[in-house]
Write a structure and sequence with these properties.
The complex is a heterodimer of chains A (111) and B (115). With 111 residues, chain A is an all-beta fold. Chain A is 0% helix and 55% strand. Chain A is built from no helices and eleven strands. In chain A, the strands form two sheets. In chain A, strands 2, 4, 5, 9, 10 and 11 form a six-stranded mixed sheet that branches. A five-stranded antiparallel sheet of chain A has the order 1-3-8-7-6, with no helix packed on it. Chain A starts with a strand and ends with a strand. The model of chain A has no long low-confidence stretch (mean pLDDT 93). With 115 residues, chain B is an all-beta fold. In chain B, strands 2, 4, 5, 6, 9, 10 and 11 form a seven-stranded mixed sheet that branches. Classes of the chains: A mainly beta (111), B mainly beta (115). At the A-B interface, strand 4, strand 5 and strand 10 of A face strand 4, strand 5, strand 9 and strand 10 of B.
Chain lengths: 111, 115
């Protein structure tokens, strides 16, 4: 089955700096890669996703890149703010099948 | 904006007891999922459900687990005889349709504590 690895496990950045989280996946057939943000005690919330026919997608301060050849995808957060502090999960799936999640990255934005 | 809802928010039970976790997916969604997250760990897939039947299940989803859509709105997860290791946050998710165009939306979760 699909195996998603996520790095780093924790990330501390100064407010205003950028944060980058990287994920790799094992199943070359996977074609959908969402990123979820989870605040303490709350549900995972989708923040951005990318499909295999696209190499990069941006939504305001958040961007995701996908390298299908290398089977890795990354989340980029620019101009970080305190409210960006949360756990971020990457995931991979094939169409409507299950989501396979990475282990999560705890992001702390220092004021 | 419609959201997936789950009840109860927290369930405490004794080992060996049966529990039923309830979910109300978003109304026009057709695909339903259960995931669990043990404290401090990744979210793990349990089961997916479509057209009134299980479409996929993980190795975690053994004979102690079952799912049901008893009516047009509820989606339930039953654990027949709970074990200590079943303690986790259980998330329900739903998706409008198949294909690669739709996202899974998660409920707020039910924290299950098995004593």
């Amino acid at each position: 089955g699909e195996n998603v690895e996520q790095h780093p496990s924790t990330l501390s950045v100064q407010e205003g700096d950028s944060a980058v989280i990287k994920c790799t996946y094992s199943d070359s057939a996977s074609n959908y890669f969402p990123w979820y943000k989870q605040e303490l005690g709350k549900r995972p919330q989708l923040i951005i996703d990318i499909r295999s026919n696209v190499g990069e997608k941006k939504d305001q301060r958040i961007a995701v890149t996908l390298n299908k050849t290398a089977k890795h995808f990354s989340l980029h957060i620019t101009e970080t703010q305190p409210e960006d502090s949360a756990v971020y999960f990457c995931a991979a799936s094939l169409y409507d099948y299950k989501l396979s999640f990475g282990a999560g990255t705890t992001v702390t934005v220092r004021a | 904006e419609p959201e997936v809802t789950q009840t109860p928010s927290h369930q405490v039970t004794q080992m060996g007891q049966e529990v039923i976790l309830r979910c109300v997916p978003i109304s026009n969604h057709l695909y339903f999922y259960w995931y669990r997250q043990i404290l401090g760990q990744k979210v793990e897939f349990l089961v997916s459900f479509y057209n009134n039947e299980i479409s996929e299940k993980s190795e975690i989803f053994d004979d102690q687990f079952s799912v049901e859509r008893p009516d047009g709105s509820n989606f339930t997860l039953k654990i027949r005889s709970t074990k200590l290791e079943d303690s986790a946050m259980y998330f329900c998710a739903s998706k409008p349709s198949g294909g690669s165009t739709d996202t899974q939306y998660f409920g707020p979760g039910t924290r299950l504590t098995v004593l």
